[in-house]
Write a structure and sequence with these properties.
heterotrimer; A alpha+beta (642); B mainly alpha (154); C alpha/beta (174); B: mainly alpha; Helicase, Ruva Protein, domain 3; 2 strands; C: 174 residues; alpha/beta; Glutaredoxin; five-stranded mixed sheet; two-stranded antiparallel ribbon; 5 helices
């Protein structure tokens, strides 16, 4: 009964989404207030029914209703309740429902926080978002219905993939989708501006907080995915340039360009065509990413089970949404106007360079991800493009970007004073160079890439300090925008340090450990106390005990496990990690050997948590900047003029 | 008994217990080299994993094959050639630089240079002085006079 | 205005590629051995471990080389097709038992029929690596001069047999 209710709710949601889009868009075109006014209530009702549908699916998972095909394929009765809940989005169909729910949630937010916007703008924004919702709901109902029944019901489910039975599954997909899907708001604002022909600084001011919020969520989502892969998959890698990872990185890169471009459009009225293009681009890449991981077109560890019919539907959806937007862009962008001029050295030119670098980096990632497909489609053979390519191309493109972070925020609008910048920054730059060259000498080995990474990170940190000091000296007071920006930029520096150090100085040992054996790694001694067999809720495990000490003093105990999941019989290594500010100690059980011995893999990973701390700082910086007073909307002030 | 004998007697059993664990690999140096090479090779039966970390049987076989080749004195290039002769370029995570992949390897940089050049040209074209000073009263009179005279001199 | 059409143009090309991509299999590995001599081997026969077979013995014949194993379920799918082909006698089929127990392999042939003229045993998969085997079943078509002319990955279906393998066999046997 409940699944049928969910199915029905989806159908109702589709009808509401259609109402949410067709009437308001037509109403805005013909200036019929009554039609435009339909947008908000229709959007709210759509959210309600999507939420009901989601609730029905989640309920089916929680009560182990194996007469629902999706539940039977992706759950297991002995799964802990929290993972039964998260299994709701552990499949293609379920995660699509989550996508749709989150889109409806953002739509709901727009209905709430748009009182200060003109009616026709609200109508168009909600209308565009409604069209996207229609596409997703239709896709689900036609090709990927999560409520299909399995009759006769299965006695037991096939189990959720052990890799997904983890707290990461609770947070990573929802937060990631909040980001991914959140760019639909900026997208809708951009299309609304193109359709109405009204694109000015106030449009940028309205779009900015939504875009920054989505960007912050996406930053957190990607960071969580990276961290989850780190502690879950084998040997503690944190980025593999896998197509699915690239699919989330590309919207992030374009989203970063977008938030910077919006700042320019808001402040100076320039870059308008660029900003609109980037807004379309960010969400287009989100949609493209959704296509890539569900269509079977690329091979990825992260892919969902695929079906050409589904791939075709999403591709058609993509073609209509993105193609339509780009067509609209082609025809209307020229009317958007150019805005003020700026000098060769100015904050505008730095930010434009920023845009170009980020877009080129995105292009490189897209090219690398799709190149094998291009060649195969043209019958020119089959190649693989992996980390060696991406690292070689991405790092040189990002390096000038990091240099710009240091000098950009201090450059004046319209015309920056080069002598002034040089005077403020030269000692900071010099100090950074010196430290960057000397510091690696105190570490394991001097490597040029390490010096480069430290230089860039220090350069950013020092220039932020100079900038903040300058502001404090002027007693300019609190500015959420200013401090948020600097926190985010500092986060970039912290992430760069983490990446540089762990890539250059990570060490490992792969040893056979009998009970009582020790291994020493970077001054830490690991003593193996043997492995105990134990039973988990839905697995059997052998749990090893490692006593870690340093200079005779105990540091920690590590309990890595080798699990065998009951439903699938899949063996699985659950690593044990001792987190530290300056290093992580990472232990993974390999194979059971003779005589109670085990093969054990031990790692010393310096500064790896800085990667995630930096990302959190970036997201936090974004969140803080949204609270800036300029975005506060006052109902008493009434709506801003058209 | 002399104290040091007691100490020795007490220490020896512990010394015997504290065994340094032996590396899993027979030859750790070779193993490092093999892992380094296979990190850039693709596991053919996996969904996008490297040959280094994959637990698939074929991956284990190929890692063993690489070890033996290296032991036989082959250098990295020879080992890679051995694999590409049998499995094609698909097994390489670093695509070879050949005319077919020039767009891949050089495209982004060409794009960057083109875009940077375009930006430079754009800024220069629109004038380097961003501030247009408003016309003074006297200048306005001159403009009116010129236009009134239908002056066609530019 | 025209430059604003560039993104749309690029996107249309991209969609075209993605549409073609839907029909391709990103995990299929084409073989670089087509047109090259079949790698040499000397392997014991399943039926008589004392005897050995090598591709050189089959010079002058057009033959199919089918890699299979008792633990491979897709091999069961193509088994009837191979049996039918062997009855028709158009082209001899030689099998290679890949990373398997000879006892299990023989049991499969006893139970389901034997389409192979002979089957060689590749216990450790070394010969498989030489042939670029990455999954079973895989089938090679080798001509009279010992050159590999075709490789098919996956079970041989009647469709593949009729449309790809047999026409080429006919051509090579002239």
């Amino acid at each position: 009964m409940i699944p049928e209710l969910g199915n029905f709710a989806l159908i109702l949601a589709l009808l509401l989404a259609l109402t949410q889009s067709i009437l308001p868009l037509a109403g805005a075109a013909r200036n019929v207030p009554a039609w435009m006014a339909v947008a908000r209530p229709a959007a709210r009702a759509q959210f309600l029914f999507v939420a009901i549908a989601f609730g029905c699916l989640a309920y089916s998972f929680l009560i182990n209703d194996f007469s629902v095909l999706n539940v039977a394929q992706h759950s297991f009765s002995k799964l802990p309740p929290i993972y039964r809940f998260t299994a709701t989005w552990g499949s293609h169909e379920g995660s699509l429902l989550l996508w749709t729910l989150i889109l409806a949630l953002w739509t709901l937010a727009v209905t709430q926080f748009s009182r200060h916007l003109p009616d026709d703008m609200v109508a168009r924004v909600l209308g565009v978002m409604g069209l996207v919702s229609c596409g997703l709901l239709l896709f689900m109902l036609v090709t990927s219905n999560p409520f299909l029944r399995l009759l006769p019901a299965a006695m037991e489910g096939s189990d959720l993939n052990p890799l997904l039975q983890d707290p990461g599954m609770v947070v990573h997909p929802p937060i990631l989708y909040m980001g991914y899907v959140g760019f639909s708001v900026a997208f809708a604002f951009a299309l609304a501006a193109l359709i109405s022909g009204k694109l000015d600084a106030s449009w940028a001011r309205w779009s900015r907080p939504w875009t920054t919020a989505a960007w912050s969520f996406l930053t957190m989502g990607i960071m969580m995915g990276s961290w989850w892969a780190y502690y879950e998959l084998g040997w503690g890698g944190w980025w593999f340039w896998d197509p699915t990872e690239n699919a989330s990185l590309m919207p992030w890169l374009v989203g970063t360009a977008l938030i910077h471009s919006l700042a320019v459009t808001e402040k100076r009225g320039t870059f308008k065509a660029w900003t609109v293009f980037l807004a379309i681009g960010a969400f287009s890449l989100s949609l493209l990413g959704t296509f890539l991981v569900r269509s079977g077109v690329l091979s990825s560890v992260h892919s969902f089970a695929t079906d050409p019919a589904r791939g075709l539907f999403i591709l058609a959806f993509l073609a209509v949404v993105i193609g339509g937007s780009l067509l609209l862009f082609a025809f209307r962008a020229s009317q958007v106007g150019l805005g003020g001029r700026f000098a060769l050295v100015s904050r505008e030119s730095f930010l434009m360079t920023n845009n170009i670098l980020l877009l080129t980096a995105t292009g490189a990632v897209l090219l690398g991800t799709l190149y094998p497909l291009f060649l195969d489609a043209l019958n020119l053979g089959k190649i693989s493009v992996g980390p060696p390519y991406f690292n070689s191309v991405f790092v040189p493109l990002v390096t000038p970007l990091l240099l710009l972070i240091g000098v950009g925020p201090m450059a004046r609008w319209k015309q920056a004073s080069v002598p002034d910048l040089a005077a403020r920054l030269k000692w900071g730059f010099a100090a950074s160079v010196v430290v960057a060259l000397l510091l690696p000498l105190t570490l394991d080995a001097w490597k040029p890439m390490v010096s480069m990474g430290i230089l860039l990170a220090l350069w950013i940190a020092v220039s932020i300090a100079i900038n903040v000091q300058g502001r404090l000296r002027r007693s300019a007071g609190w500015s959420a925008n200013f401090y948020g920006m600097n926190l985010a930029h500092l986060g970039v520096a912290v992430t760069v340090i983490g990446i540089t150090m762990v890539s250059a100085y990570e060490t490992e040992r792969n040893v056979r450990m009998d009970v009582g054996d020790t291994v020493t790694l970077k001054g830490y001694t690991f003593l193996f106390k043997g492995a105990q067999d134990l039973d988990g809720p839905n697995y059997k495990a052998a749990r090893g005990t490692l006593e870690v000490s340093r200079n005779g003093k105990p540091v920690t105990l590590l309990y890595p496990e080798k699990r065998t999941y009951l439903a699938s019989g899949m063996p699985f290594s659950e690593s044990a990690i001792d987190y530290g500010f300056t290093r992580d100690l990472y232990a993974a059980m390999g194979e059971r050997l003779d005589g109670g011995a085990w093969s054990v893999r031990l790692f010393h990973k310096p500064f790896v948590v800085w990667i995630w701390i930096g990302s959190v700082m970036m997201a936090l910086g974004g969140a803080i900047s949204i609270t800036d007073r300029r975005y506060r909307t006052s109902r008493k002030k009434g709506r801003a003029g058209a | 008994m002399k104290p040091w004998v007691i100490v020795l007697a007490l220490w020896l059993p512990f010394a015997a217990l504290a065994n340094e664990a032996k590396p899993m690999a027979e030859d750790p140096v070779l193993e490092q080299r093999m892992i380094g090479l296979s990190e850039n090779l693709r596991c053919l039966v996996c969904q996008n994993e490297s040959l280094a970390g994959s637990r698939a049987e074929l991956a284990q076989d190929l890692r063993q094959e690489i070890r033996e080749q290296m032991r036989a004195g082959k250098n990295d290039k020879e080992v890679v050639d051995y694999l590409t002769q049998r499995y094609g370029d698909f097994v390489l995570y670093k695509p070879p630089v050949k005319p077919l992949t020039w767009l891949l390897w050089f495209g982004p940089f060409v794009l960057l240079i083109g875009a940077a050049g375009g930006l430079y040209a754009y800024i220069k074209r629109r004038g380097n002085r961003p501030v247009d000073a408003p016309l003074s009263e006297e200048e306005k009179k001159r403009v009116a006079a010129l236009l009134g005279n239908n002056g066609n001199k530019s | 205005m025209k430059r604003f059409l560039i993104p749309l143009g690029i996107f249309i090309v991209l969609v075209g590629f993605l549409a073609i991509g839907l029909k391709l299999d990103p995990r299929e590995v084409p073989s670089p051995l087509i047109g090259k001599p079949a790698p040499d081997f000397k392997l014991a026969l399943l039926s008589d471990p004392a005897k050995q077979l090598s591709p050189a013995d089959l010079r002058g014949k057009v033959w199919l080389f089918n890699v299979w194993a008792s633990w491979c379920t897709s091999c069961r799918e193509e088994h009837p097709v191979l049996l039918e082909l062997s009855r028709q006698g158009g082209v001899p089929i030689y099998g290679m038992d890949y990373k398997d127990q000879p006892g299990d392999a023989q049991a499969v042939l006893d139970r389901h029929g034997n389409p192979y003229v002979e089957t060689v045993v590749d216990r450790d998969g070394r010969v498989g690596i030489d042939y670029g085997v990455y999954g079973v079943p895989e089938t090679y078509l080798i001509d009279k001069n010992g050159i590999i002319r075709l490789k098919h990955t996956g079970p041989v279906t009647p469709d593949v047999l009729d449309k790809k393998i047999l026409p080429l066999v006919k051509e090579l046997q002239r």
